[in-house]
Amino acid sequence: MSPEEWAAFLEVHKGLPRQGPGLPDDVAWAVDAIGLSGAVDVFDAACGPGADTMTLARLLPEARITAVDTTLSFVEQAQAQLADDADRVSVRCDDMASPDGSYDLIWCAGALYFLGVTEGLRGWRRALRPGGHVVFSEPVLLDPAPSAEVIAFWSDYPHITDLSGIEARVTAAGFQTHAHRMIVGAPWEAYYKPMQARIDLLRQSDPDPQVARALDENQLEIDRWRAARDQIAYALLIVSPQ
User: Fold this and answer.
1) Which residues touch 50 (CB under 8 Å, ≥6 apart)?
2) Are 43 and 69 contacting, i.e. CB atoms less than 8 angstroms apart?
3) Can you identify the CATH homologous superfamily of domain 3-241?
4) Are 50 and 81 in contact, with CB atoms under 8 Å apart?
5) Where are the domains of the chain?
6) What are the pLDDT tens digits along the chain (242 aa)?
7) Per-residue three-class SS string for the chain
8) How far apart are the first and last CA of the chain?
């Protein structure tokens, strides 16, 4: 992506509450399933504007949370939203691949595929305390024979597999899967509904050609999701080193 294309992408995504599908209930499910509580240390990898970071801070009021993202505008949005928790929540521009410190939980919503599931988990292993967990979401095929609409939606991610394929990549990293939850329907609506409103607003402002192209690309993504909304999913997995 060229600098101009990236700037146009950021203009479309500016101020959105999320940068990927998810709901607070998904975070709560993972925290409850792990049994996490008390003065634990949490690393939020690729936190975006901080939607899940805020939920983690609410669910774990004694936790120390480090949240990182490489996009400054997202980091600044997250910092503003978490200002009241700045004594125990640190948000900064940094690479998620090599977390500093030692953590009881590494949370990564919809971004581990940038590193690769196996490669990312291997890199994070040294940052996990004994008994620590990684929770991540990954694109998943719900049907072994996906529809044309699903294939079109995931055309930019050729590595997508079914759940067993994700679990195989987890095993290859030397981790084991404890539980999973499908992110489908409402969590995607929570992502795309504000984006649609943002697209509609920017359409009214006579955007420059680069932004107009970005609007078209994001609208196509939303339209493709709508065409197969019950078939488009992430799998949210709880894993730990074997």
Assistant:
1) 67, 74, 77, 78, 79, 81, 82, 91
2) no
3) Vaccinia Virus protein VP39 (3.40.50.150)
4) yes
5) 3-241
6) 899 999 999 999 999 999 999 999 999 999 999 999 999 999 999 999 999 999 999 999 999 999 999 999 999 999 999 999 999 999 999 999 999 999 999 999 999 999 999 999 999 999 999 999 999 999 999 998 999 999 999 999 988 999 999 999 999 999 999 999 999 999 999 999 999 999 999 999 999 999 999 999 999 999 999 999 999 999 999 999 99
7) CCHHHHHHHHHHHCCCCCCCCCCHHHHHHHHHHHCCCCCCEEEEECCCCCHHHHHHHHHCCCCEEEEEECCHHHHHHHHHHCHHHCCCEEEEECCCCCCCCCEEEEEECCCHHHCCHHHHHHHHHHHEEEEEEEEEEEEEECCCCCCHHHHHHCCCCCCCECHHHHHHHHHHCCEEEEEEEEEECHHHHHHHHHHHHHHHHHHCCCCCHHHHHHHHHHHHHHHHHHHCCCCEEEEEEEEEEC
8) 38
Q: Is 167 within 8 Å of 234 (Cβ atoms)?
A: no
| Length of the chain counted residue by residue | 242
**The tokens of 9 are what?**
């992408």
Output the six-digit token pair for 235: 């799998």
